[in-house]
Amino acid sequence: MASRKAAHISIDQARWIDKAQAMAWVGVKTEAKFDEEWKPYLNLYNNGGKGGVYDKLQIDRVMEQRLEIKGQEYSTR
Fold first, then answer.
1. Of 12, 51, 67, 73, which has fewest CB within 10 angstroms of its CB?
2. If you average pLDDT over residues 49-76, what whole number do you get?
């Protein structure tokens, strides 16, 4: 008889990740830093009342934008 237990999926393979996985994905160690620097730019999706999940593709796009902007001079205009 086949097992009904779901196979473990790594963060690399997952599309939807929880807050702890998102923190690991972006390399943030504290929730306060994640809430300050990342959460305002990400959508939190409801996954049936289990705390919500983030779209890893959106996190990757935000990371890419930050890398592009990082080298540019700061402007207030």
1. 73
2. 80
